[in-house]
Amino acid sequence: MPDLPATDPAGTPAAEDAAPRDTSPCDTAPRDTAMSGSAAWAALGAAGHLARVYRGGDVRRGIDVDGLADVLATADARWSVPATLSASVQLATALPVLATGTGPAVEHVLTRALSGTATLALAATDTTAGTDLTALRTEAAVDATGVVVTGGKEWITNATTAESFLVLARHRPGRHFANFTWVLVPADAPGVAVRPARSALYAGSGAGHVSFDAVRLGREHLVGRVGFGLPVFARHIAVERLAGALWGVALCRRVLDGTRRRLTGREHREGTLWSRGHVRQRFAAALVRVRELHALTERSAPAVAGHYDLQAAATLKAAAGTTVPYVLGECAHLWGAAGFADGGMQEIRAQAALFGIGGGTTEVVLETVAEGAERVLGDLGREVLPL
Ligand SMILES: Cc1cc2nc3c(=O)[nH]c(=O)nc-3n(C[C@H](O)[C@H](O)[C@H](O)COP(=O)(O)OP(=O)(O)OC[C@H]3O[C@@H](n4cnc5c(N)ncnc54)[C@H](O)[C@@H]3O)c2cc1C
């Protein structure tokens, strides 16, 4: 099995600013932060790592939590935040949603994506507000012979590199949950146009916008049953939220580790920055938050991976969406001016703000948490002993 490509041995976040590296096995992986998401995906596929994310290597059997955590931690250790996002969306959502379909068109794309030969974009967010999904305008006109897709999607990871788009479209007007259907649209089909998002922060993920001008396809491009688009999305976005929490723990751990090495190596008065009480406490507070996220992730993972528990997934997303930006903000501050170097902590901090937005903003997932408040409070209760 070939190993992943090894290039730049840069530390976190800028080699010239980093303190001497320790020998922790987690931190010996060479980093190549210039690697694109599609190249990272190809490397994971070539190394045989993509299949380990699924039980028995079969995407239709569901997520193997340890496998997913290992692959995300590997991507995070070696590549940039955008490159890891590119892999995460495909592993947790795009491939499992595609696998709800059958037929030659679906199997062809699934095989190519699972081997790392091709990337697949998941295009749910429309030209309308992403937090108002049932208002999406992209249409799939379905008849006995096929489907015609018309509309547009914005801020889609892997858009500029994808061989195919998995498009959430409406086959009927109105907000009812049964009005939506997935369609597999080849990127080279007549009527498809892609333009990159103007984002230096996320260019490496292939982020872009795509429009569909009466794209005509055969019925084999319908993925799953007509009208089941939204329930399928809800199930699999739960797994994306778990993936975000697993990745968030790995990212915070790596950044905290790099920051600790920076602080312990940076001379200050008679000691180092690490010897300053306020610095240590600030760091420790961030460490506590990561441990909380880690504990919650461990506790919730079986329910999300096993039966798509939407409440547990929303809770995880709300936690990751606040913890990751907090921890990276604290670390960026502790890097001082060096944090502003190209590719430095301030850039990573800005990229990590996506944890509170992509795949469900913090406000939206907190609404879901609030809906389940009664159950959560019940779960926290203990028997009051008679006196
Ligand atoms: C780098 C990147 C990659 C992405 N990749 C993908 C992808 O691969 N596939 C895909 O489908 N989408 C993708 N997205 C889109 C992402 O899922 C959306 O950005 C997200 O769902 C939020 O939608 P929006 O940006 O339209 O925000 P809006 O809907 O415009 O909301 C803006 C803000 O309004 C506030 N708000 C909204 N609703 C509420 C509410 N109910 N209560 C309180 N406040 C609220 C929140 O503060 C929110 O951040 C990506 C986005 C980025 C930036």
From TrEMBL:
<dbReference type="InterPro" id="IPR050741">
    <property type="entry name" value="Acyl-CoA_dehydrogenase"/>
</dbReference>
<feature type="domain" description="Acyl-CoA oxidase/dehydrogenase middle">
    <location>
        <begin position="121"/>
        <end position="215"/>
    </location>
</feature>
<feature type="region of interest" description="Disordered">
    <location>
        <begin position="1"/>
        <end position="33"/>
    </location>
</feature>
<keyword id="KW-0285">Flavoprotein</keyword>
<dbReference type="Pfam" id="PF00441">
    <property type="entry name" value="Acyl-CoA_dh_1"/>
</dbReference>
<keyword id="KW-0560">Oxidoreductase</keyword>
<dbReference type="InterPro" id="IPR009100">
    <property type="entry name" value="AcylCoA_DH/oxidase_NM_dom_sf"/>
</dbReference>
<dbReference type="InterPro" id="IPR009075">
    <property type="entry name" value="AcylCo_DH/oxidase_C"/>
</dbReference>
<dbReference type="Pfam" id="PF02770">
    <property type="entry name" value="Acyl-CoA_dh_M"/>
</dbReference>
<comment type="similarity">
    <text>Belongs to the acyl-CoA dehydrogenase family.</text>
</comment>
<dbReference type="InterPro" id="IPR006091">
    <property type="entry name" value="Acyl-CoA_Oxase/DH_mid-dom"/>
</dbReference>
<feature type="domain" description="Acyl-CoA dehydrogenase/oxidase C-terminal">
    <location>
        <begin position="229"/>
        <end position="372"/>
    </location>
</feature>
<protein>
    <recommendedName>
        <fullName>Acyl-CoA dehydrogenase</fullName>
    </recommendedName>
</protein>
<dbReference type="InterPro" id="IPR036250">
    <property type="entry name" value="AcylCo_DH-like_C"/>
</dbReference>
<dbReference type="InterPro" id="IPR046373">
    <property type="entry name" value="Acyl-CoA_Oxase/DH_mid-dom_sf"/>
</dbReference>
<keyword id="KW-0274">FAD</keyword>
